[in-house]
Design goal:
CATH topology of the largest domain: Rossmann fold
Radius of gyration: 21 Å
Number of domains: 2
Largest sheet: 7 strands, parallel
Strand order of the largest sheet: 3-2-1-4-5-6-7
CATH architecture of the largest domain: 3-Layer(aba) Sandwich
CATH class of the largest domain: Alpha Beta
């Protein structure tokens, strides 16, 4: 079969869907990846996939989006794919509409989190309300045209059903895009100590790590609140943020604020990191106090894979990763005080950190192993049997 996977950019294909791509290719299918081009295109092509560039921007721009819609139609009509599988909002909506017009019979969508569709700092403004209404309408149409939609958490399913955006029979729940546990291996204590020194820390430092873009709704301010209170009490505690600044100033935390905190406190803003495994390897506690409408945050699964205890919010997507008190703690959203208390409990108890880290790894093996996720998609989404695979 000739299968297209459509996503915003090449890096999301490579990080989130590499296992699926490899499995499809090994099963004898021709895989074409449609996205914006970047430095990972060659790595995707080395897997055996073909890449087609589309200029898929993150933000709403009527003229740009019209060009994208035309691009989708031209590609789908020319390539005549047997299956088109879309990821994220624009492929799910524009991509599905154009795939249907171009004659594709099997179209699948993936909702990896609702984000702006549910939460928006400008949600009271007329333009924002209008965009949300339009997006719901587009999703309702695309759900009718697609064969099935894959959701990563139950909250997003409930939202679609309550708003009558999808037929219940077209819903598939597979929690997360998965993580390759063979690639995410725990380093030895000696290597971790060496990595800490290489990255400018003392081997005995206790590192509380958050990996995310510097967005307000990822809980950066709550993280900084906890940092200010706990570094004053615990000399070895260091707070680390790995992630680039956000270009959208309405949603992003100013780089100047992060730099100011780094100059004043034991707070380290590393910016974007290419080798993120090392950042997780040196961590003692992994934190994500997000109140964004997440799918299932990969950074939390990555922490679990490396046996780190988690502190995150009792929020959509985030709560899927934590069994309360077993592999981490859940705190209310926008609650810096609760976040501080739970992090402090883990700072004070190394045995609890160790036990929670082990429990998180076992949970990752049971629920988030990429092999389990991919097998479920092949069988329950694409409905491949032994002959089609």
């Amino acid at each position: 079969m000739k299968i297209a996977l459509v996503a915003p950019d090449d890096i999301t294909h490579y990080i989130y869907r590499k296992g699926l791509i490899i499995s499809l290719i090994e099963s004898g299918h021709e895989v074409c990846l449609i996205s914006k081009s970047g430095e990972h295109v060659s790595q995707l092509e080395n897997l055996g996939a073909r890449h087609i560039h589309v200029n898929l921007g993150r933000f709403i721009n009527p003229l740009h989006d019209l060009r994208l819609i035309i691009e989708f139609y031209q590609i789908f009509r020319k390539e005549k794919f047997d299956i088109i599988h879309n990821f994220t909002i624009k492929p799910n909506t524009y991509g599905t509409l154009m795939a249907s017009v171009a004659g594709c019979k099997r179209i699948f969508n993936t909702v990896e989190g609702l984000g702006f569709m549910v939460y928006d700092p400008d949600e009271k403004k007329i333009l924002s309300k209008t965009l949300k209404i339009a997006l719901k309408y587009l999703y309702k149409i695309s759900s009718r045209l697609s064969e099935k939609t894959w959701f990563l958490n139950t909250d997003d399913i409930h939202y679609f059903l309550e708003n009558k955006l999808i037929n219940p029979q077209k819903v598939l729940l597979v929690k997360s895009t998965g993580i390759n546990l063979d690639e995410w291996k725990l380093s030895s204590a000696e290597k971790v100590a060496s990595l800490k020194q290489k990255m400018g820390f003392h081997p005995d430092d206790l590192l509380i790590v958050m990996v995310t873009r510097a967005l307000n709704n990822k809980g950066i301010h709550e993280f900084l609140y906890a940092m200010e209170h706990l570094t004053a009490k615990y000399e070895k505690a260091k707070f680390v943020l790995a992630g680039g600044a956000e270009e959208d100033l309405k949603r992003g935390v100013p780089a100047s604020l992060l730099q100011e905190k780094a100059n004043k406190y034991p707070f380290y803003w590393l910016g974007h990191q290419n080798n993120i495994i090392d950042t997780f390897a040196i961590s003692d506690i992994v934190v994500l106090p997000s109140y964004y409408r997440e799918g299932v945050p990969r950074c939390l699964m990555e922490g679990m894979a490396l046996k780190k205890p988690l502190v995150t919010t009792d929020n959509v997507g985030c709560r899927e990763t934590v069994d309360e008190g077993v592999n981490g703690f859940l705190v209310p959203i926008k609650d810096g005080k609760s976040l501080t208390e739970k992090i402090e409990r883990l700072i004070q108890d190394p045995d609890l950190r160790y036990k929670m880290g082990l429990a998180g790894y076992e949970k990752a093996k049971r629920e988030f192993d990429e092999k389990i996720i991919v097998a479920s998609l092949l069988q329950n989404l694409y409905q491949f049997n032994d002959k089609t695979c």
